[in-house]
């Protein structure tokens, strides 16, 4: 069975600083993908970044980057130059295999608060 | 530019009532999903579909049914509402394997 673990229920960061949100995963399938989603207090789910298990380089999307360490089974999200609007719940999710219909398994989330 | 549309946004049901949560997408995505999110928790997959006429169970399917008669629509049916089904329900779609899922805004459902 696959599992996603986010060990930080809450994180605080000062505006303009960088922050790392932790995510570890467990799967025996060699083909998988890791996603990060942001959920603001308004409730919608916003896709941030994706990393495939066979991707050679760490994914980056603007201020978001994914620190992918395959041997450690970790896929941490790094947010650079934090902004007040980054305050939200962040979810790590995993898709396993090639025939699973791209189903996602989600972690329990990290609540990020950006302080002015 | 609607994306994934869910209706209703809010609903209160009495125990034992039934209802259908509607989900439609206009992106011609093959894959569609239903998740539930309990307070302070991550999302859990209820059902998913890889194309019209094909559905399969996710992690927490008990108490729910789905159908997929068209590419656009993926309704979720609650037959006998129970308090344990109080949750926020999200519908999502994606074009294929390994692609990001696009989420609707959610339906907040309370069973009293």
Summarize the SSE layout with pairings.
The complex is a heterodimer of chains A (116) and B (112).
Chain A: E1 3-5, E2 10-14, E3 19-21, E4 24-26, E5 32-39, E6 46-52, E7 60-61, E8 64-69, E9 74-79, E10 88-96, E11 104-106, E12 110-115
Parallel strand pairs in A: 2-12
Antiparallel strand pairs in A: 1-4, 3-9, 5-6, 5-10, 7-8, 8-9, 10-11, 10-12
Chain B: E1 4-7, E2 10-13, E3 19-25, E4 31-37, E5 43-51, E6 54-57, E7 64-66, E8 76-78, E9 87-94, E10 102-103, E11 107-111
Parallel strand pairs in B: 2-11
Antiparallel strand pairs in B: 1-3, 3-8, 4-5, 4-9, 5-6, 7-8, 9-10, 9-11
Structural overview:
The complex is a heterodimer of chains A (116) and B (112). By secondary structure, chain A is an all-beta fold. Chain A is built from no helices and twelve strands. The mean pLDDT of chain A is 93. Helices cover 0% and strands 50% of the residues of chain B. Chain B is globular, with a radius of gyration of 13 Å.
Please report the distance between the alpha carbons of the first and last residues of chain B: 35 Å
The coarse silhouette of chain A is: globular
- Give the N-terminus to C-terminus distance of chain A in angstroms: 41 Å
Taking pLDDT < 50 over at least 5 consecutive residues as the criterion, the unreliable ranges of chain A are none
Order of helices and strands of chain B: EEEEEEEEEEE
**Cα Rg of chain B:** 13 Å
Q: Specify the biggest β-sheet of chain B.
A: 7 strands, mixed
Structural class computed from helices and strand pairing of chain B: mainly beta
Mean pLDDT of chain B: 94
**Poorly predicted spans of chain B:** none
Helix count from the secondary structure assignment of chain A: 0
Q: How many strands of chain B? A: 11
Strand content of chain A: over 45%
Secondary structure: helix percent of chain B: under 10%
Q: Which two protein chains have the largest interface (Cβ within 8 Å of the partner's Cβ), and how many residues from each?
A: A-B, 23 and 29 residues
Structural Rg of chain A: 14 Å
Strand segment count of chain A: 12
**Biggest sheet statistics of chain A:** 6 strands, mixed
Q: Estimate the helix proportion of chain A, in percent.
A: under 10%
Q: Quickly count the helices of chain B.
A: 0
């Amino acid at each position: 069975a696959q599992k996603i673990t986010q060990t930080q229920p809450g994180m605080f960061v000062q505006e303009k600083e960088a922050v790392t949100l932790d995510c570890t995963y467990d799967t025996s399938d060699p083909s998988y993908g890791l996603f990060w989603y942001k959920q603001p207090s308004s409730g919608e789910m916003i896709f941030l970044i994706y990393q495939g298990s066979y991707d050679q380089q760490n994914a980056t999307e603007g201020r978001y980057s994914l620190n992918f360490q395959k041997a450690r089974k970790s896929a941490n999200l790094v947010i650079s130059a934090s902004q007040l609007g980054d305050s939200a719940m962040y979810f790590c999710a995993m898709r396993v295999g090639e025939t699973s219909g791209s189903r996602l398994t989600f972690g329990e989330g990290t609540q990020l608060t950006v302080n002015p | 530019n609607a994306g994934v549309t869910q209706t209703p946004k809010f609903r209160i049901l009495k125990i034992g009532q039934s209802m259908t949560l509607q989900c439609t997408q206009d992106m011609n995505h093959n894959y569609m999903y239903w998740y539930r999110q309990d307070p302070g928790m991550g999302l859990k997959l209820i059902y998913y579909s890889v194309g019209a006429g094909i559905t399969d169970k996710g992690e927490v399917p008990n108490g729910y049914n789905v159908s997929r008669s068209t590419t656009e629509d993926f309704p979720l049916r609650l037959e006998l509402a129970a308090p344990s089904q109080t949750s926020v329900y999200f519908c999502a779609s994606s074009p294929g394997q390994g692609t990001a899922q696009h989420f609707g805004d959610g339906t907040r459902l309370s069973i009293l």
